[in-house]
């Protein structure tokens, strides 16, 4: 494994002040302190006072009033679209700064965070267009009766996001929620709140410039237990849009179920990456490693279970190991880095402990399996890209999401055996298939239970294509026109034009 030395960020990213966006105002939170750490060095970036339950209450009440204010409620779709374009322009204008801030806070490579900033701007633009062109339905009249269906805002959206790609996952919730006419309370994760706050300044400025109620969007980083649960339980919140772990999603769904409010859940995964015997192996090996090791494996769709034909097992393990050893591990600011640090030392230690348990159970470490020994990386939350072999499907390492740079190799006998093993998981988020046989690809793609399937690629996304999981990977979809509907309720209006609308009077 090649490692590269830590270099300081240049130019220094702008660190947001100790202020949250609560009910249209920037002020320190009243909740517990959040320490933001640069995972490449372990140094503290800044501290913030996070949101308390009382901050959530203030933001939710103000959001409820703002959502119902005529200035927003009666705004025509092309004006909502103008707001979204203005936010997109703001993100584009600050893209480099936002990317650097996200790299500083999460450790992701600059190449990744630049792409995420661009995708966030693209999300706002897509939703601006979707908002202007959204249709209701007006079926052919039945005799003298018309019936039409209109889609109305839910009211206040609680948007709860994880730390791995904050600027993109925030945009995937704020943009459709605003496009559908709602107010939004965003709660980013406490490990990486800085870019959400910086993008929040852009959203806030755009609301003011458009003359709209600033309380339409609050940004409330804080703990899940206090700020998160306060949001889900708040009477003024009409829907929870959550991205994060499955256990948290289940808890949120239980609370929301008691309140009878809808939830959209984008949860975890343990996705298969399938190498078929006829695959172009250079592409398959490079693509499979990208699928698991980019973002240091901290991706919900990471292809963490690599399936190889049993009779090609040794050859493929050797190729995967060789290519993995050549990956460059280092700080996200170094343009040569392919695998950055994990988001936090606590998370790195959790990943290391999972690998240690697998090894204790009998797994073979093909490569990696430890913290790098390069002294230049000593302060950071690094973990070497790891390939494990000779694992049992029932073991934790094959069943639980590691959310780190760790792949297991699993051999299969034939297509039926492959599909059975690929589906032998509680999750159903994504699947990558590498093959030159398009009929085979189609058969496997249709049989595997997953929300997204990639053929001869991995981790490719488009804002116009719906994304979601099945089984324990989630409920509902984001992105695409379907994703916009998540944030609306449906109302049907019947309208009679008949002279005698209900001829029910008894005959004289
Ligand atoms: P997490 O579930 O610990 O936290 C996610 C968010 O929920 C955070 O903002 C957290 O503070 C909040 N939260 C925690 N407990 C809460 C509670 N009781 N009530 C309300 N909010 C609460 O997840 P994480 O560690 O931040 O992120 C990693 C997970 O996210 C992984 O499982 C990953 O697969 C998943 N993820 C899924 C997708 C997807 O689109 N399917 C995308 C990215 C990440």
What can you tell me about this protein's structure?
The protein is built from 16 helices and 23 strands. The protein starts with a strand and ends in a 12-residue tail after the last strand. The protein has a seven-stranded mixed β-sheet, with helices on both faces. The chain is globular. With 508 residues, it is of the alpha/beta class. It folds into two domains: 8-267 and 469-476 and 487-492, Aldehyde Dehydrogenase, Chain A, domain 1 (3-Layer(aba) Sandwich); 272-455, Aldehyde Dehydrogenase, Chain A, domain 2, CATH 3.40.309. The structure holds nicotinamide-adenine-dinucleotide.
Could you outline the blueprint of secondary structure elements for this entry?
Elements: E1 2-3, E2 20-22, E3 25-27, E4 33-37, E5 44-49, H1 53-68, H2 70-73, H3 77-93, H4 95-106, H5 110-133, E6 145-153, E7 156-160, H6 166-179, E8 183-187, H7 194-209, E9 217-219, H8 224-233, E10 239-243, H9 246-259, E11 263-266, E12 272-275, H10 281-293, E13 305-309, H11 313-325, E14 328-329, H12 345-361, E15 364-367, E16 386-389, H13 396-399, E17 406-412, H14 415-422, E18 427-428, E19 430-434, H15 438-447, E20 452-455, E21 470-471, E22 474-475, H16 480-485, E23 488-496
Parallel strand pairs: 1-14, 7-8, 7-10, 8-9, 10-11, 12-13, 12-19, 13-17, 16-17, 19-20
Antiparallel strand pairs: 2-3, 4-5, 6-23, 11-22, 15-16, 18-21
Bound molecules: nicotinamide-adenine-dinucleotide.
């Amino acid at each position: 494994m090649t490692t590269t030395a830590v270099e300081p960020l240049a130019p220094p990213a702008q660190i947001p002040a100790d202020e949250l966006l609560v009910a249209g105002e920037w002020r320190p939170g009243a909740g517990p302190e959040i320490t933001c750490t640069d995972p490449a060095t372990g140094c503290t970036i800044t501290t913030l006072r996070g949101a308390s339950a009382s901050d959530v209450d203030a933001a939710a009440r103000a959001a409820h009033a703002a959502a119902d204010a005529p200035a927003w409620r009666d705004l025509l779709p092309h004006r909502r679209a103008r707001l979204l374009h203005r936010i997109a322009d703001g993100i584009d204008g600050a893209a480099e700064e936002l990317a650097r801030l996200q790299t500083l806070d999460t450790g992701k490579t600059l190449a990744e965070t630049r792409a995420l900033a661009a995708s966030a701007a693209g999300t706002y633009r897509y939703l601006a267009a979707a908002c202007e062109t959204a249709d209701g339905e007006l079926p052919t009249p039945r005799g003298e009766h018309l019936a039409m269906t209109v889609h109305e805002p839910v009211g206040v959206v609680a948007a709860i996001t994880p730390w791995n790609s904050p600027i993109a996952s925030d945009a995937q919730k704020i943009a459709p929620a605003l496009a559908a006419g709602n107010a939004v309370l965003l709660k980013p994760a406490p490990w990486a709140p800085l870019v959400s706050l910086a993008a929040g300044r852009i959203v806030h400025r755009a609301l003011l410039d458009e003359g709209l109620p600033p309380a339409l969007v609050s940004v409330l980083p804080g703990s899940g237990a206090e700020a998160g649960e306060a949001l889900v339980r708040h009477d003024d919140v009409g829907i929870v849009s959550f991205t994060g772990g499955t256990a948290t999603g289940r808890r949120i769904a239980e609370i929301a179920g008691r309140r009878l409010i809808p939830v959209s859940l984008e949860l975890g995964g343990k996705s298969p990456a399938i190498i078929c015997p006829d695959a172009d192996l250079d592409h398959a090996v490079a693509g499979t490693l990208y699928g698991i090791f980019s973002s240091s494996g901290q991706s919900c769709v990471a292809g963490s279970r690599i399936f190889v034909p049993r009779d090609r097992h040794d050859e493929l393990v050797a190729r995967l190991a060789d290519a993995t050893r050549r990956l460059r591990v280092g700080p996200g600011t170094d343009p040569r880095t392919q695998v950055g640090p994990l988001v936090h030392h606590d998370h790195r230690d959790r990943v290391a402990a999972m690998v240690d348990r697998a090894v204790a159970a009998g797994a073979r470490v093909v490569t990696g399996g430890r913290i790098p020994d390069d002294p230049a990386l000593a302060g950071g939350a690094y973990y070497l890209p790891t390939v494990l072999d000779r694992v049992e499907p029932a073991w934790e390492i094959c069943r639980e999401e590691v959310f780190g740079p760790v792949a297991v190799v699993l051999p299969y006998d034939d297509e039926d055996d492959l599909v059975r093993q690929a589906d032998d998981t509680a999750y159903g988020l994504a699947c990558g298939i590498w093959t030159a046989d398009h009929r085979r690809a189609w058969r496997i793609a249709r049989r595997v239970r997953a929300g997204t399937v990639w053929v001869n690629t991995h981790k490719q996304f488009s804002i116009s294509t719906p994304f979601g999981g099945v089984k324990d990977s989630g409920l509902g979809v984001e992105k695409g026109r379907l994703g916009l509907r998540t944030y609306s309720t449906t109302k049907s209006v019947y309208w009679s034009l008949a002279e005698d609308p209900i001829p029910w009077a008894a005959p004289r």
